Amino acid sequence: MLGNFTYCNPTKLYFGEDSLNYLNTELPKYGDNVVLVYGGGSIKKNGIYDMVMEILKKNGKNVAEISGVMPNPTLAKLYEGIEIARKHQANLLLAVGGGSVCDYTKAVSVSVNCQEDAWEKYYLRFEEPDCELIPVGCVLTMVGTGSEMNAGAVITNQETKQKIGHVFASEDVMPKFSILNPKFTLTLPHYQMVAGIYDIFNHICEQYFSGEDDNTSDYISEGLMRSLLHASRIANQNPQDYEARSNIMWTATWALNTLVSRGKATDWMVHMLGQAVGGYTNATHGMTLSAVSLPYYRYIMPYGIEKFKRFAVNVWDVNPEGKSDRQIAEEGLAAMESWMKELGLVMNITELGATEEMIEGIADVTAVLPGGYKVLAREDIIRILRESL
User: Fold this and answer.
1) Using an 8 Å Cβ cutoff, are 289 and 270 in contact?
2) What is the mean pLDDT of the chain?
3) Strands 152-157 and 162-167: what pairing?
4) I need a surface site. Which of 15, 82, 90, 312 has the fewest CB within 10 A?
5) At the top level of CATH, which class does the domain 12-185 belong to?
6) Can you tell me the distance from the alpha carbon of 111 to that of 59, in angstroms, rounded to the nearest whole number?
7) Tell me: the pLDDT tens digits for 215-230?
8) Whole-angstrom Cα distance, residue 212 to residue 135?
9) What is the pTM of this model?
10) Is 7:259 a contact under the CB 8 Å cutoff?
11) Is 190-388 assigned to CATH 1.20.1050.10?
12) For 263-301, what is each residue's pLDDT tens digit?
């Protein structure tokens, strides 16, 4: 491993079928005013809302609610949530939902006591909070983002069509605790389940496809990918398989709690491309990633051929005997494509609502990051997007 790094992750995790009971352990640590944050109402249909509210009332909490957090949380919704949390004088923000709800709640947390405009400060200037934060706890109902154990928060500005993620530098932004009960994920529609699975997989890829040194983080990444491939195939056939869904949930957390990024550069261009597409189409995040991934990886493969070769052999069990490095690497990406189609992932941005007329605009809002095997120019981005149509 090259370079120097620090690693600190203060989020406490409670995992398993009985994990919600530990909300009783955490709630007494915070004041009486809790803001419950959730999405479109599915937690009321599946009973999770009632279970959480019963525990909150048992602990004597005064509860306000931010409901209707959408899959791609908007800036307008962020402003709404800030005002609710301020009015309630929140002592704890409790996110109950998937990654979007957790992301959104962290964005509210860093903004409630901030006197500046949250979008300008955090998403355009990428500054760190210099105000008191409101503690965040999470009860996870959908897996994919790893937001339950990281400091990331993605917000969409619908007016400018910018979907921007800020991964805050301070571990104070991370949730204080997260409750992970795999049973809470079993009612997800198949489309959302596989979108989350691909989000997990791509998080690992974004950190894997960079660097040339012998790095322990890459070995961990390969193990996580192999576990995910195994569990995803089982869950795709039987979404109610608890063991498979529990392994998927645990892999999601470790895919993006910063562990496998230590000691190396990271890429993140699939996310930049996918988020730009999402800003224009409001499509499901994991599907925007699946739609642009293969065109991007095939484009940069010649610049990182050794890692793509290793990916093929160590993750996809490609037999390298008698083949050139390029043939091995291409066979690995072909195996990845077959798996994606097996899951039923979206394979092009046209299916998400993108058109040729949008390409220039999507390219304009695609951020370029330097960590991968090739730093993209605007013409590279346009070419990849056209190949993604």
Assistant:
1) yes
2) 97
3) antiparallel
4) 15
5) alpha beta
6) 27
7) 999 999 999 999 999 9
8) 39
9) 0.95
10) yes
11) no
12) 999 999 999 999 999 999 999 999 999 999 999 999 999
Domain extents in the chain:
12-185, 190-388
CB 36 within 8 A of CB 63: yes
Q: What is the pLDDT of residue 1?
A: 86
Three-state SS annotation for 141-166: CCCCCCHHHCCEEEEEECCCCEEEEE
At 263 the pLDDT is 92
Question: Which three-class secondary structure string do you get for the chain?
Answer: CCCCCCCCCCCEEEECCCHHHHHHHHHHHCCCEEEEECCCCHHHHCCHHHHHHHHHHHCCCEEEEECCCCCCCEHHHHHHHHHHHHHHCCCEEEEEECHHHHHHHHHHHHHCCCCCCHHHHHHHCCCCCCCCCCCEEEEECCCCCCHHHCCEEEEEECCCCEEEEEECCCHHHCCCEEEECHHHHCCCCHHHHHHHHHHHHHHHHHHHCCCCCCCHHHHHHHHHHHHHHHHHHHHHHCCCCHHHHHHHHHHHHHHCCCHHHCCCCCCCHHHHHHHHHHHHHCCCHHHHHHHHHHHHHHHHHHHHHHHHHHHHHHHHCCCCCCCCHHHHHHHHHHHHHHHHHHHCCCCCCHHHCCCHHHHHHHHHCCCCCCCCCCCCCHHHHHHHHHHHC
Shortest CA distance to 46 belongs to which of 144, 178, 142?
142
Binned at pLDDT 50, 70 and 90, residue 251 comes out as: very high
Give residue-wise pLDDT tens across range 138-157: 999 999 999 999 999 999 99
